[in-house]
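Reviewers of the previous submission asked for a worked example of the structure-prediction workflow described in the proposal, so we include one complete record here. The input consisted solely of the amino acid sequence. No template or homolog information was supplied to the procedure at any stage.
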Amino acid sequence: MTSTRRARVLSGLARIWSPWLVWLWATTLAAAILLVIDRVRSSLGPGHHEGLRHRALAVLGAGHLVAQVALFVCGLLVYLLWRGAGRWIRWRPVREAIWLPALLFALLAAWPLWVVGRELASGPWIAQQSYAWAVKIAPVVGGVAAAPVLAWLALRGPQAVRRPLLRWSLTLGLLLGALVAEVADHVVHPGLYPEYHLFAYSTAALLMLLGLRWLLFALPGMPHARLWRWPALPLAAAWLVSPVLWFGIDERTRADLVMESVVATDWIRTAMPVQPTTRVAKMLDALDVEPAPLSQSGVPEQWPRGLVDLPPDTNVVLVVFDAFRYDVVPPALPPEGNRLVDPSDTPFLHQWSEGAYRFANAYSASTVTRRAMPTMMRSIQVSDDPMIAGVSAAERIERSGRVSVAAVINYFTEGPSDKANLLLEDFQNVSTYRKDEHDLLVPRLREQLEGIRGEPFVAWVHLYATHHPGFADGHLLEEADGNRTERYVKSVRYIDQQFQRLDAMFGELGLREKTVFIVTSDHGEGLGDHGVTLHGPNLFEEATHVPLWIKIPGREGRLVEETVGTIDIMPTISDLLGEPPEPQDRGISLVPLMADPPHTLARAYYLQNAKHNRSAVVFDGFKLIHDHEADVLLFFDLGADREENRNIFDPDSELARRYLMEFIGFEPQLFQSEFADPDTNRLLRDKLDEIDPSAPGSALPLLLQLATVSRDPSVIDAALRIFDQTKLDEVRLLIIRHLFEPTPEWEQRVVGWFSKRRGQAELALVSALAAQQQPPIAQVSFGRRMTHYANTGSPDTWEPFLELLMNWPKSFKTAQVLETMLRRMGELGQDDRQVYMLIMRNVAQLKIEDPTHPDWEPLRAQIRALTEHPDPRIQAAAIQAASHLMDHRAVPSFKQRLSTPKGDVRARRALINAVLVIDGDESMDFILDIARTELTAYTVRRLGAVGTPAALPFLTDQRRNSYNSFTRSDAERSYREA
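From that input alone, the workflow returned the following structure tokens.
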């Protein structure tokens, strides 16, 4: 080849290569800059940071480059479509107009932008604002408006701008916009809005790419000089290698990135495919199946009770601080303090806690109140349904012969969570305060206690001040009071002062020396830890680890190191008051840990975050977290790494396998995909075949839970063999709980077993089925037995059936049995509150196709009479049942009672609901007059369910002027529904 021809070929290649060279450099430099920003952001978070291994750092860099390449490819696609369309458009002004690529850009981004707006508008804070609707559409509107500008900047480029000053201004504007987007990504509620943060990062990446492309155009010699050409070869290689590195990411590197990069975490959770795993198979292969007594709870067979003897008139006060971190008080707070507080911020709590049993490792089951408080107050797992599982706190209290008292935030009477509202329904004496009325809590509690003077009691006191936005100095805190951390510290100081006032009040009433105080929190609070503010997403220590102090009169406290949970609080109260354990309790009594000498315990506690997309187990100084969306396991040695900065998970470690086994036992459905492998099903069947039906040990519950997920016929057959061969009712109950199906074969087994039990043995079996929240089984047979007891038995024999029925569908035949029970209660002169409450709750679940049919009238009449019962709890339950039965005859009485501005808050709430449901628009003006002075938030939500235009003026006023952001949000929703 002659030199002339060679020069011509090279010149041709240069012409092809040069236009792409600028973009190659721009994408690579943008990825490098964003990688640096990523690492700086990580280092700015609180706590010590281990940094990334070299491989993880390379994969993270590849991820940033893949993002840049993806943006470039999208732009290239738009460019090619634009130029392709130009061949078919003859009119040059239209062919050259920028509106066509702008439209393509807008269409490409419209759906992602809509998802971002929808997620932002439904978030825990923005959803409460009156402008949430504007937030929802803002990304789409902004994207459409920005599309022409971005299309011009990307496709026309800097060569279209002849004035250097304007060109440099646009270049700097793009780069500055990228930095602003990065700052917005960093400061706007990190961790709470994944789609928003992906959008903010994508915006920063796009602006950075365009800004660098404009900047490179201005540099001398670009793109023709050798200075720029030859280094581009390794950059092109990086383009090719980066997708391989990023999409070939291994499990260890995924975990490293989830720990160390907020940006990569969002990518992995939303856009990365889950890798197949064999965790269950490895666990089964290592599982020992040894004959032993059945064990389900991790509690020793003989866990003692009654080790602390208290006088019969002892009171108990459970004080719950909302969103209160474990590390702002002892024993976690060191003498020199930490980045948040020092001991001088909480002087009274420090002094008071010295005489208490201080549990150094206490955990809440969830990171949000609506899930955490039911687990605490009903002693259930966070995976249980609190509407049917567990024993209510008030019922437990009354069995001890004490008055149940509650002084709590009105979230538990007017809040959006039915599961949280249920907690108060059985309490005898209730007072509430609004979140701008914290100073009224102690005076109102004093009135309650003075009203029951002389009677022993158990009180639940809920202090809400540390919940966002915070409360101190007599008012709700605002941005003018400091940043989130500063406001939180002010609220902590207020909690210290409020608790001191509470303690002083007990001293003035002469109750301090005969009252057991239990102080804890429903969950913690993120203040930038692990990239999250507020609470909900994470399961790290700042969100799940809570303070727990128990102060018993006459006993010197001490530090208790064992891992415990807030689900243990109610069983502990029962034990302190001399009551037996409840069969439905998932927690245990902590009294043996406070005894002399103390007992020891190593028991796993199961945790879930707010949205249940992360779960964990914690015990014995270690915590295992599973991120469902990223499918990574994080394992921490809490003794050596309390801030959880070093993930030590090793799938080959015996310790890690032990914790993984515990975790799989709590949540086997997360590993359902593994049962597509026949070898995993074979391993499970073989392990079930090894079970001794007379001594199944601790392995059977785990294997049955896995069988529930597997549903392989050979696995089910192995479980049925155990059912047929065992003589232990508890083993059969466990198998039914997990594997029962409504088939003739199963029905025959259950009926045959059940028919051999009569009298107390039968009732005990029904109670056990109810305690395990048994789904419907052998309904015809159980229905006959319930009818038999309704006609011939006493109310105490109905209770097990009524509890079991709570989880079953109910028809008119069920209604007839419930009516028989109510009629016989009157005939027998019985006034059993618990039976009444169970009947009412079952009535409220009846399936009613035609409520006007006269056959419903006998039941309505029985319920109507109970709406006037002297016990406000029975009143409220009966009113709720009457509204479900659409009892129009009861409405005049309900309205008359509402006209009197006094009464139990639960009964009045039920009255408002009943009048709205039954009478609708006919009584709307009456209800709105009531709602302007009481139960406003509750009425606002109910108006949305009723959906009536007559309420629009009232809802408009509430969504604009309510002091409560939750109420404003509910009013906005109800307004749209109406």
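The longest strand covers residues 315-321. We consider this example representative of the routine output the project will generate in years two and three.
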